[in-house]
Design a protein that fits this description.
10 helices, mainly alpha, 0% strand
Length: 183
């Protein structure tokens, strides 16, 4: 099986567009950012933008996904099993994400941000649960992963209202997050 490599020029162009969008999001609300603003800042033409992204909403989703994945050490997490340490690491990554890009351009896009976080968390949590419960039905494990992803995201929303560090906030909640995973 051969792995297809992405052309470095494509990666560079995507990076230019994403960086331009992130820089613009620090200065303007999302609704006020135009494709022209992004293409001018990235020094690419509109056709190039549309070759890589459907529209600015697609770009927003890709940027949010990349920032979230950057905060997650997915390689290390996939070597863990589900438990206190994995839940804490995932929560800290989401909390860090909440303090970076999501606070810049989320006016009216909280649901997009929440959906991206929950989807990524569920994809990460599922194999951790599968390691712990190899005999459990796939459907049950997927539902458990979805519920846990909502739980971690919800905890991060509450954390934003507190003055605690992510670690201090999540530690007393871990018994409730991890309790009774077995039906």
């Amino acid at each position: 099986m051969t792995e297809e490599k992405t052309d470095l020029r494509i990666l560079r162009t995507r990076r230019l567009i994403m960086d331009a969008f992130i820089a613009l999001s620090e200065k303007k609300e999302f609704n006020d950012i135009r494709i022209t603003d992004i293409t001018e800042a990235a020094m690419v033409n509109r056709a190039t933008f549309y070759y890589h992204y459907e529209d600015k909403y697609d770009l927003l989703e890709k940027v949010l996904s990349e920032v979230l994945l950057f905060n997650l050490d997915t390689k290390a997490i996939h070597q863990m099993t589900w438990g206190d340490h994995a839940a804490t690491q995932l929560f800290i990554a989401v909390a860090n994400f909440q303090t970076t890009l999501s606070s810049r351009c989320h006016q009216g896009y909280e649901e997009t941000i929440a959906r991206i976080i929950r989807e990524h968390l569920a994809v990460i949590i599922y194999p951790l649960l599968q390691k712990e419960n190899p005999a459990k039905e796939e459907d049950i494990l997927r539902k458990m992963a979805a519920i846990l992803s909502w739980t971690i995201y919800g905890a991060s929303v509450e954390w934003k209202k507190s003055t605690l560090s992510p670690e201090a906030f999540i530690q007393p909640l871990l018994p409730f997050i991890l309790h009774k995973l077995e039906p």
